[in-house]
Amino acid sequence: MALKNPAQDLQELADAVGDLQKNILEVVYEPDARKTLRSFSLREAARWIGVSVPTLRALCAEHGLGAENGRSGSRGGLLLTAEEMATLRKQAAAAAAAGGRKRRLLPGRVEGETVQVVASMIFKGGTGKTTLAVHFAQYLALRGYRVLVLDLDPQASATTLFGLNPAAEVEDDATFYGVVGGQRTMAEIVRPTYWPGLDLVPANLALALTDFEIAGRAKLEPRPIHLYLRDALRDVKENYDVVLLDCRPDLGMTTLNALLAATGIFVPVTMSQLDIASMGEFFRFSSFLLEQLPQFGLGEEGIGLDFVKLVINRFDPTQAAQAQCHHWLLARMPDWVLRTPMLQTAALGHANAQWQTLYEYEPDEGRRRAYNRALEAFDRLCFDLESTLWQAWGRKGSPHALPSASTLTRGGAHD
Ligand SMILES: Nc1ncnc2c1ncn2[C@@H]1O[C@H](COP(=O)(O)OP(=O)(O)O)[C@@H](O)[C@H]1O
Ligand SMILES: [Mg+2]
C-alpha cells in the first residue's frame, strides 16, 4: 500500500527522531543536558604534558591547582581539569631551558611554520573519517596544540560527538553553507567546545545544499568554485596550529573545496576488497579533478599539499589477509601509508554508547585493561599522525614520546 502523503510522513519521522535525540542528550549529559569533559588523574595529566608525576605534583602544590578526588568508589589522588593541565603545561615550559625540551612541552607552531589544514577524506561512508578526525583533534588538544575542527558532512557526526544537536542547536547559516551563501564569515561561526584549545565549526543538514549553492553562484559571480573554503579559512586559521576537516563521503564541490584548502590528507580505509576498490577510484577521480583546475584559473602550483597518507582502519592483525595487504601497501608505497593502523576495537563502541570518544571515556575497572589497549593503539596512531605534521613543518626530531597507557594503571591508588 502506497503512503498517502510521504513528505508529511517523513517529516513526522524526522520530528520523532529529533525528540529521541533530545531525550538521549538529556539522559546522557544530565543534570544540565550539556556535554562536559571529565577531569584527569595526576598520572594521566603528567603523561599528556610530558613531565614526571612528582614534577607535576610539585607544580600543582606551587600553583594551588588540582582537587582531591572525592568521588565515591573511585581511586584517590589529585584530579585536574583540562584547563588546569593547560596552565601547568605553560608553567612546566617556563621552567624548562629553551630548546628541544621546551618545544616538546609547548609543541605548537612557531614563526615560519604554516597552519596545517588536514582533511579526513575518502568518498566512501563508514570508513572512519569522523573517528579519525575527532580523536586526532582531541589528542592534539591534550598535547597542547590549538585545534579547529570543521565539520563538512551534513550528517554532522563530529558535531554530534562534540555534544551539539545539529537540528536543534545549529542554525543553517552557522555552518559552511552560511559562509558559501555569504550570510556569515568563518570567524563568526567558530565556537569553543568543552575541550580547552579545541574549537568547532559545526554542521547540520543544510550543508547538503552547499554544492547546489556553489554551482548556482558560479553563474552569478566570477568567484572560483573551488576556493570558497580556502578563502574563508584565511581569516581564522592563524589562530590555530592545526585545522581538521571532517569531509562528507563524496567528491562534490564541498569536498573539492576541502581538497584545495588542505595542506595534508588522511584517507581512512579498511582492508576490505570494496574499500580498496573505492580508494583506487577516489585517487583516480581526485587526480582527474586536479587536472581540470587549470581551466578554472588555478594551476598545480596553487595546490599546497604537503602529504597524503592512507590510514588503515578496523585493522585486525590476526586476519592474515589484512596483515598481508597492510604489509604489501607499506612495501609498495612506504611514504603514502601510515605505519600504524587504526585497530578494530570494541572500546570505541563502548565509548560511543555514551556519546564519547576514547579520549573522553573513563571505563569502569572491569573494562580498564581492554580500554587501555585500545587507547594505546589510538595513541600510537595519533603519534604517527602528529609526527607527519612535524615533518610537514620541517622540524627535526620527533614529538615527545607518550608513555604507554598501561602505566596509567600501574601503582594504583594514590598518585
Ligand atoms: N577502528 C574501529 N573499531 C571499531 N569501530 C570503529 C572503528 N573505526 C570506526 N568505527 C565505528 O564505525 C562507525 C563509522 O565510523 P565513522 O568514523 O563515523 O566513519 P565515517 O566518518 O567515515 O562515515 C562508527 O560507529 C565508529 O565508531
Ligand atoms: Mg563521518
TrEMBL record:
Entry-linked Gene3D superfamilies: P-loop containing nucleotide triphosphate hydrolases (3.40.50.300)
InterPro entries per UniProt: AAA_dom, DNA_Partitioning_ATPase, P-loop_NTPase
Residue ranges of every copy of the AAA domain listed in the record: 116-282
Record-linked SUPFAM superfamilies: P-loop containing nucleoside triphosphate hydrolases
Pfam hit, one: AAA_31
Protein name (database record): Chromosome partitioning protein
UniProt lineage: Bacteria, Pseudomonadati, Pseudomonadota, Alphaproteobacteria, Geminicoccales
